Structures are given as structure tokens and as C-alpha cells.
């Protein structure tokens, strides 16, 4: 598949690049950002997939999170895709900021008019890795996933639905139980229809309760002063309860004074990268 | 070795060779057989001749030419025999005028074959010339061999003699010196005596003369008086005047009468003879007698203690003679030196008789000082005592205290007991790396001059070592202590039981701690200054090295515990994690869930953990200022404190409810502990 480079900037000894390609899953042109550490010049590197949250594009993470330094030190490639298909002109996709454009929710939609283009789950778990592995010096066996907010939800469900595919998973202020929060309910009913049983396949809390597979090690950071936490959009307690029950190892940190913004991500991204490096470089 | 004996044998050979030679002289002909001739000449004692070499006046060393080599002798042999008339083998003599062709072994004479049957050699053993030659040659070689032996013996003897000559010279020299000295002494004494006597005599003369002189004066006086009287009397006698005459004559007459009554002392005041002083020559006599007697020895000299000659219970004491004294035996005295000065004089000295100039004294006490002195005795008497020398036995080996030794991958801290009641000078630590093969270990490092009973040793990671300690005093080093094994994998330490809260009890092996809710009343608990008073806690004895350390703790899911590190001076009445001198992970059990806190200065982050750790890994990194906690079973990182440790910290453990904790030591820090 043809990739065309959109931009390239040297950063932390490596290169922060943005590419564009025609996506077969999403049936449109998609951009993604990729950071190549210095190590990539000489050897294959593991890949960390970063899934961004509502309203984000491939730009937010690479400009605001400050991940390049740690990625460079630990020799990790970080791929940060967009959060939804773009320019498909699906009706209603621009109406809200938390549904449609920039709010793909990392599901494969089953309902019209979304089901043609809104297949972010397959894009993230299949097409993008194939693309990245064939075009960049990656170690295909070593990948991990992380994300923020909606992206956190995406990271969790990718890991829970694909036991053994990801070496490690972490999240910043994830939407832990979308079925139980306003955001999730709005998105799922739009993309998946009213049958809530179909929602379960994309709910981290539900998936955790029935997870079986290789042991995970989930790191979750949550800002205590996150407005969405207090608005019951995130519901981490539900996930923790489910994981405690199922004995899925989770370390959940409630970070005093931090909010939902990229400043929060910036503050703890190094620790998350170290967490992933522990498994990716083992 | 009998020189003459050899001479006799040589006689025989000469006769064999020179059978037809009728010179008949006793002296040796110079034959190139061997150069025995020369040797014999020299070694033989000839009257008045060749003593030249042995005179005392020369320093010439004796020299003998070596024996001639075999080859020369062979050719010489041939030469010898070639000299005498010999026929070529096979050619028979036909007449008497021909040279003889056979040899009569019995008569040892060459003869003619045709004469055999009827000549004087009729019944003798007659052999061919060539055979005879062989036989004789053999005999000659045999004898030659014997001669060579003799020569060697002679050479040895000669060199012995050389040495003896030197010894004799030495002895002579000594005796000469001795004699000179003695006679000098005698002469000196005699001349002293003479002077004394002479001056005594002179004094006597003076005395006599003086007394005689005074006597003379007296006489003179008397004479004068008498003369005066006479004159007076005469004058009076001539006086015409009868009245004055009669008046005065009575007085004069009285005077004269009185005077004449006085007996003049006509005896000599002193005798004319001088006393013959019987000089006391007894001591001179004694000296003369003792000239030939060996003097009593002078005091020997004690040698200082030779390093490494002492053992735990024995000392090798050495001394030497002051001069070339003759000594029959020595008497060595020894006495222990005690610390208590007042006791010293009371201790008895023991004595042992020794013939050599050294003696090994046994059955002594380790790490103790002893005084030694020695006297030398010969037939004349005993020498004065030597100066006293002090020797010291080596100390007993120290005893390493395994419960107080700690280690980490880069170093080990070893502590030991001195093993001696009295102080020693220093300690030496010896390290042996244990190689992969069994029994392969050799001392790789020695650390000396350690003043106290502990030592911090730098080591290589991942290696097994045997550590030995020796105590050292002036007598030398002790034997090695029992070895202590150090394995530089992971961090190894014990609990400081002194710091334990009274309610915290520690197992036999020292690694498991229990909080037993014995409901002891507070008054009965034995608190000390070191022990925790409120928090049921205990500190660990971590090695004081600023490197990375790692240890694990096994916990019960139902135990409420605190695990972390603290400064040594953390307040004993505070709770771990509640002050700024301690950092710990705390597990609290509430009715609904498990709570995990990471406490320092009373503050904790809000952390939820879904899997309850049963084995907690603690990683301490001084350089990066990090204290990390892990779920070791899951290899899951739980939390990291970031803090600059200003002092060394100690691991700390506490139990908040009845339960148990087990410390797991000596585990290598897993790889994942780097990612914090």
C-alpha cells in the first residue's frame, strides 16, 4: 500500500513523521504519525500504538505529549493514528464532538450510515499494523497499546479482545465502562444499534470480567481533578472491581491535582513508556 | 687411609713392568702410568723435607694435580708395553736370541715357547705373550682403579687438612690472644705491686729517718744543755769569789745532779732494719694458674624475636655468644609478663638447660608476652645474665560473627570477635575466590592493618568468596579463622533484633518475624532505647554502601504490614512512614477491600491494586534516589518513591495486626526493576 510522507521533523535524535495512505477498512485517506527512534536506523524496534481521545487527530499526541524523548531512549516506535475516518461525508458525522468525526470509539460500526467507514477497530488492530510492519523497521512480534480517554478505552478493549497480541497496555483517564456512561451509550447506540449485547464486545469492564488469556499488566493514570471523572464518564471503579474479581493485575493511580488535558499526559507519559519498554525490550 | 699401603702395592706393579730391569732401586721411576709418582712423593712423609707446604708461615693452599685421563693411560700402557720387547703375535721365537714369545704366569717372566717342555717353566702355566699382555693389562687397570680411589681419598683428606689447618690457625690465634692478655694482666698486676711495695718502702724510710732525725735533734739539744751546764759549772768553778760560788754552786750542782739522773736516751728510736714485706703474690699465682684455664664466658646476647617464628603456644627463642667463648651449656630463663605490674615480681621464672643457641618454649598462652634471659656455663663458671628480651606468642584466631555480616553485589561487611582476651595490634582479612571447580580456591586479596573488628570489602558481583580473618600482634599473625562464605548475588542482611518492638518476635533463622498478640501489659514489655515503642517494627542491618540493593518480603494476604526503609535514627515512637525519616508500602485491610499506601511523612498517593502481592520486591537505588516496590510474582511495578537519601537507610518492617512477614535475602535484582 502506498504511503506518502506528509511531514518529517528530527526530534530527540530520531524522526517524527506523518504519513498518509488509502485505508481499505475506512475507505478514505488516513493520516498517522510515527516516531522513529535512533535505534530504528540500524535495527528493528518494537511498536507502541497510541490511541488518542475525542476530537483529536494524529497531531495532538505528537505535539503535546512529549513522548519522543522517552521513546528515543528506550528505542520504541510510536504510531499515533487519527481517531476516525475523515472526509467520508457521512451524514451527521459533524454534528457532535463526541460522536462521528473525531469520535470513532474504536469499534466496527454495524449500523448505517456508519458501517461502511467507521471500522476503526479493524483499522487499528489489523490494517495499520500490517501497513506499519511492511513499511518500517519493526519487530512484528512486539507491540503494545496505550491511549487517552476514548483512546484509553480503545487500548483496553484491543488488549482484552486480543489476548497475547499486545505485550503491554496502559491508559490515561480511560473510559472504562462505556455501556454505563453517557458518552458510551451515545456512541454505541449510534454505531452498534440498540441491542446492548452487541455493546459488551467493546466494553473494557465487561471484557475484563470474561477475560482469559496471558496475564496482563495494566497501568492506568487518572487525574483526580478530571471533570469527566466527576461527571461519571470514566467509571474506573467499575473496571477495578472487575479486574480485582478476575485477578487481572492493574495498578491504578489517582493523581492529585491533574485534569483531563494533555498536560496530564505529558506529566506521566515517561512512566508509561517505561512500563511498555519493560515488556517490549524484555 | 694408609699411605704406605698403597706404596707397597705400587711396588708390585713396578716389578711386573720392570722385571728385566735390574736397576733394583727403591725409589720410583717416573712412569707415565699415572701421575701417582708425583702424588706419592708429595704425600709421603719424608724426613725433614717437604713440610714446606705445611708451614704456618705460608698461606699457600694445597693443590694437587688431577689424575691423568684414561686415554693417556691407555697409550701410556701401550707405550709401557711397547717399550719392552714384544713380538708381533704369531711369530714364534726359535732361539734364545730371539725375543721371547710366551710368558710364564707363575714366574712372571717372558720366555721362549720351545723352552716350555723342558725349561725351568716346565710345570708352570705358560701363556702366549698376547694373552699375558691382556692379563697384565687387566691387573694394571684394576690396580690403577684402586689407585684412583686412593687419590680421591687423599684429595678429600687433603682438603680436610686444609680446613683443619685453618681451624688450628684460628684456635692458635685465639689462644695467642688469650695468652697475651693474661700475661699482660699478670705483668700489670706485678708492676702495680712493685710500685706499691716500693712506695711503701720509701715511706718507711722516711718515717725512720724522721724519727732518727728527731732523735738527733733531741740529742743535740741535750748536748747543748749539757754543754751549757758544763760551761756554767766551769765558769763557776773558776770564780774567785767564794761567796757567790758557794751561793750558786748548790743550785748548779742540783741541776747537774738532776740532769745526770736523767738517763740519756741512747737507744735508737727506730731499728735500722727494714721490715721484709712479705708480698702477697697469691692472686698473681692464681692468675698464672688460670692462664691456661678457659675463661668463664661473657654474657650472651638475646636475639630479638624473628618474625613468624612464634606460634599460638610456642616461641622460638634465639641468642648468640658475645665472643668466641667456649660454652658447655646455656640456661634459659623465662617468665610471663602480666598486665598487672604488681604481680610481675612475684611470678617465678622457669629455667631450662639447653645446648644449642636456640630453644622452642612450648605450652604457652596465646597473645601473651614473655621475658627471656640466658646464662652460659663452661668448666670455669657461669656468665652473667644476658639482657632480658621480650617475646610474644601469636594471638588466637578471631571468630567471624555470621549474624552480623551483610553483603551486596559490590561489597561485603564482615564483623568478628577478637578471639583474644587481651587486645591485639590489628587484624588481617584474607579473601579467596571460589572457582567453578570444587576445591579450587586461593587467596586473592589480603587487607592488613584493620584496627577494629569489622571490615568493608569491595567485591566483584556474582562471585563466591571465602573470607578469613587473622589477628596480628608483634609475635606475628594468628591462624586463619573459620571461613565465612560470601556470595555476591543480591543483597544479604539480618534483622537488628535490638530494634524490634517487644511484641515482635523473630524466628530462629532470623528471617521471619511475628506479631503475636500476647496481650502483654505495657508495663511488662521490655523497651530499650533502640527498640520501637509504638509501631511493632524492626530494622534490618543493610550494608552501608551507596549502590543498588534488592530484597523481597513474603507476606500473607491478611496481614497488615509496612515494608520499606528508614534512617537509622528514625524515631522509635513513630509509625513507619509517618515521619520524614521513613518510606514504606503499607497494606491495610478494610472490611470491603485491600488498601495499599505508599507512605512518607504521613502522605500517600492514591493507588489501587487489583492483585494482592504475596511477594514484594523492594529495590533501593541510592544514586538515583529511588525506592521501588514490585509484585515479584507478577513482575509488576507497584510504586516508586523519588527521594534523595541523605544518609544510609535501613530496611524496615512492621506488622499492624497479628501476622507474619518473611524476609527473602540474597536474590539477584530482576531485570524489570530497571524500568522504574
TrEMBL record, chain A:
Q: Where in the cell is it found?
A: Cytoplasm
What reaction does this enzyme carry out catalytically? S-formylglutathione + H2O = formate + glutathione + H(+)
Q: Which SUPFAM superfamilies match?
A: alpha/beta-Hydrolases (SSF53474)
Q: Which GO terms describe its cellular component?
A: cytosol
Is the keyword Hydrolase in the record?
yes
State the Gene Ontology BP annotations: formaldehyde catabolic process
Gene3D superfamilies per UniProt: alpha/beta hydrolase (3.40.50.1820)
Q: Which InterPro entries match?
A: AB_hydrolase_fold, Esterase-like, S-formylglutathione_hydrol
Q: What is its EC number?
A: 3.1.2.12
Domain of life, per UniProt, equals: Eukaryota
* Alphabetized UniProt keyword annotations: Cytoplasm, Hydrolase, Serine esterase
Q: Does the keyword Hydrolase apply?
A: yes
- Catalytic site: 149 (charge relay system), 226 (charge relay system), 260 (charge relay system)
Q: In the record, which residues are listed under signal peptide?
A: none
Q: What is known about what this protein does?
A: Serine hydrolase involved in the detoxification of formaldehyde.
Q: Which NCBIfam families match?
A: fghA_ester_D
Instruction: Spell out the family assignment given in the record's similarity comment.
Output: Belongs to the esterase D family.
PANTHER family linked: S-FORMYLGLUTATHIONE HYDROLASE
Q: What is this protein called?
A: S-formylglutathione hydrolase
**Which lineage is the organism of this entry classified under, starting from the top rank?**
Eukaryota, Metazoa, Chordata, Craniata, Vertebrata
Which gene underlies this protein? ESD
Amino acid at each position: 500500500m502506498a504511503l506518502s510522507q506528509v511531514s518529517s521533523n528530527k526530534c530527540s535524535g530520531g524522526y517524527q513523521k506523518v504519513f498518509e495512505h488509502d485505508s481499505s477498512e475506512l475507505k478514505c485517506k488516513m493520516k498517522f504519525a510515527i516516531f522513529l527512534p535512533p535505534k530504528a536506523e540500524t535495527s528493528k524496534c518494537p511498536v507502541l500504538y497510541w490511541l488518542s481521545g475525542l476530537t483529536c487527530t494524529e497531531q495532538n499526541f505528537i505535539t503535546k505529549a512529549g513522548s519522543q524523548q522517552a521513546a528515543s531512549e528506550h528505542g520504541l516506535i510510536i504510531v499515533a493514528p487519527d481517531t476516525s475516518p475523515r472526509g467520508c461525508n457521512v451524514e451527521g458525522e459533524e454534528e457532535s464532538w463526541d460522536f462521528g468525526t473525531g469520535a470513532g470509539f474504536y469499534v466496527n460500526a454495524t449500523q448505517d450510515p456508519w458501517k461502511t467507514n467507521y471500522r476503526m477497530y479493524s483499522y487499528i488492530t489489523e490494517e495499520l499494523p500490517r501497513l506499519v510492519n511492511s513499511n518500517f523497521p519493526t519487530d512484528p512480534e512486539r507491540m503494545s497499546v496505550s491511549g487517552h480517554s476514548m483512546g484509553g478505552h480503545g487500548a483496553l478493549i484491543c488488549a482484552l479482545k486480543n489476548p497475547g497480541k499486545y505485550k503491554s497496555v496502559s491508559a490515561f483517564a480511560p473510559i472504562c465502562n462505556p455501556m454505563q456512561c453517557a458518552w458510551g451509550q451515545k456512541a454505541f447506540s449510534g454505531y452498534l444499534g440498540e441491542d446492548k449485547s452487541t455493546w459488551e464486545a467493546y466494553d473494557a469492564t465487561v471484557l475484563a470480567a470474561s477475560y482469559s488469556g496471558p496475564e496482563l499488566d495494566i497501568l492506568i493514570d487518572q487525574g483526580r481533578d478530571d471533570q469527566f471523572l466527576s461527571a461519571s464518564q470514566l467509571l474506573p471503579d467499575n473496571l477495578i472491581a472487575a479486574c480485582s474479581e478476575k485477578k487481572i493485575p492493574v495498578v491504578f493511580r489517582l493523581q492529585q491535582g491533574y485534569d483531563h488535558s494533555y498536560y496530564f499526559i505529558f506529566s506521566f507519559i515517561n512512566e508509561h513508556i517505561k512500563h511498555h519498554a519493560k515488556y517490549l525490550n524484555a | 687411609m694408609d699411605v704406605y699401603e698403597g706404596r707397597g702395592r705400587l711396588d708390585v706393579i713396578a716389578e711386573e713392568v720392570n722385571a728385566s730391569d735390574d736397576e733394583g732401586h727403591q725409589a720410583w721411576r717416573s712412569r707415565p702410568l699415572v701421575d701417582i709418582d708425583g702424588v706419592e712423593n708429595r704425600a709421603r712423609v719424608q724426613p725433614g723435607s717437604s713440610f714446606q707446604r705445611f708451614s704456618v708461615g705460608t698461606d699457600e693452599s694445597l693443590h694437587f694435580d688431577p689424575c691423568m685421563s684414561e686415554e693417556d693411560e691407555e697409550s701410556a700402557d701401550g707405550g709401557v708395553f711397547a717399550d719392552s720387547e714384544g713380538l708381533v703375535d704369531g711369530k714364534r721365537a726359535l732361539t734364545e736370541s730371539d725375543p721371547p714369545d710366551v710368558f710364564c704366569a707363575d714366574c712372571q717372566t717372558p720366555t721362549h715357547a720351545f723352552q716350555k717342555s723342558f725349561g725351568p717353566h716346565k710345570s708352570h702355566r705358560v701363556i702366549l705373550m698376547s694373552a699375558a699382555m691382556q692379563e697384565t693389562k687387566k691387573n694394571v687397570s684394576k690396580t690403577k682403579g684402586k689407585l684412583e680411589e686412593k687419590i680421591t681419598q687423599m684429595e678429600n683428606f687433603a682438603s680436610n687438612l686444609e680446613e683443619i689447618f685453618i681451624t688450628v690457625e684460628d684456635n692458635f690465634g685465639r689462644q695467642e690472644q688469650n695468652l697475651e692478655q693474661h700475661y699482660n694482666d699478670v705483668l700489670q698486676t706485678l708492676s702495680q705491686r712493685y710500685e706499691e711495695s716500693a712506695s711503701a718502702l720509701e715511706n718507711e724510710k722516711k718515717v725512720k729517718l724522721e724519727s732518727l732525725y728527731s732523735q738527733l735533734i733531741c740529742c743535740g739539744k741535750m748536748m747543748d744543755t749539757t754543754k751549757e751546764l758544763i760551761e756554767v759549772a766551769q765558769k763557776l768553778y773558776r770564780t774567785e769569789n767564794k761567796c757567790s760560788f758557794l751561793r750558786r754552786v748548790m743550785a748548779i750542782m742540783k741541776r747537774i745532779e738532776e740532769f745526770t739522773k736523767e738517763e740519756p736516751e741512747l737507744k735508737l728510736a727506730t731499728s735500722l732494719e727494714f721490715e721484709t714485706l712479705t708480698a702477697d703474690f697469691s692472686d698473681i699465682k692464681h692468675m698464672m694458674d688460670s692462664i691456661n684455664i678457659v675463661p668463664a664466658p661473657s654474657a650472651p646476647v638475646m636475639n630479638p624475636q624473628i618474625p613468624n617464628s612464634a606460634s599460638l603456644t610456642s616461641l622460638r627463642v634465639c641468642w648468640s655468644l658475645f665472643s668466641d667463648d667456649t660454652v658447655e651449656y646455656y640456661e634459659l630463663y623465662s617468665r610471663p609478663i602480666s598486665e598487672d605490674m604488681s604481680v610481675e615480681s612475684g611470678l617465678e621464672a622457669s629455667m631450662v638447660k639447653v645446648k644449642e643457641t636456640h630453644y622452642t618454649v612450648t605450652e604457652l598462652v596465646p597473645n601473651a608476652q614473655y621475658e627471656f634471659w640466658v646464662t652460659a656455663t663452661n668448666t670455669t663458671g657461669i656468665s652473667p645474665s644476658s639482657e632480658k628480651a621480650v617475646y610474644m606468642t601469636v594471638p588466637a584466631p578471631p571468630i567471624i560473627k555470621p549474624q552480623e555480616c551483610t553483603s551486596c553485589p559490590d561489597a561485603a561487611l564482615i564483623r568478628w570477635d577478637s578471639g583474644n582476651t587481651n587486645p591485639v595490634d590489628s587484624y588481617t582479612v584474607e579473601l579467596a575466590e571460589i572457582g567453578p571447580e570444587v576445591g579450587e580456591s586461593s587467596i586473592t586479596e589480603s587487607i592488613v592493618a584493620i584496627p577494629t573488628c569489622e571490615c568493608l570489602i569491595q567485591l566483584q558481583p556474582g562471585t563466591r568468596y571465602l573470607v578469613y580473618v587473622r589477628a596480628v600482634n608483634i609475635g606475628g599473625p594468628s591462624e586463619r579463622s573459620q571461613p565465612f562464605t560470601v556470595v555476591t548475588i543480591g543483597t544479604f542482611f539480618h534483622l537488628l533484633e535490638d530494634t524490634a518492638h517487644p511484641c515482635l518476635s523473630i524466628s530462629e533463622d532470623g528471617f521471619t518475624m511475628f506479631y503475636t498478640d500476647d496481650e502483654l501489659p505495657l508495663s511488662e514489655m521490655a523497651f530499650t532505647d533502640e527498640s520501637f515503642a509504638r509501631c511493632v517494627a524492626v530494622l534490618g542491618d543493610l550494608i552501608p554502601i551507596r549502590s543498588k540493593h534488592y530484597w523481597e518480603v513474603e507476606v500473607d494476604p491478611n496481614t497488615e504490614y509496612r515494608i520499606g526503609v528508614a534512617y537509622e535514627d528514625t524515631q522509635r515512637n513513630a509509625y513507619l512512614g509517618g515521619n520524614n525519616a521513613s518510606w514504606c508500602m503499607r497494606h491495610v485491610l478494610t472490611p470491603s477491600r485491600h488498601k495499599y499506601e505508599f507512605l512518607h511523612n504521613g502522605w500517600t498517593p492514591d493507588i489501587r491494586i487489583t492483585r494482592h502481592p504475596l511477594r514484594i520486591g523492594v529495590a533501593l537505588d541510592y544514586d538515583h534516589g529511588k525506592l521501588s516496590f514490585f509484585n515479584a510474582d507478577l513482575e509488576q511495578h507497584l510504586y516508586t518513591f523519588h527521594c534523595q537519601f541523605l544518609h544510609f537507610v535501613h530496611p524496615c518492617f512492621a506488622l499492624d495486626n497479628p501476622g507474619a512477614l518473611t524476609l527473602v535475602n540474597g536474590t539477584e535484582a530482576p531485570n524489570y526493576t530497571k524500568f522504574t
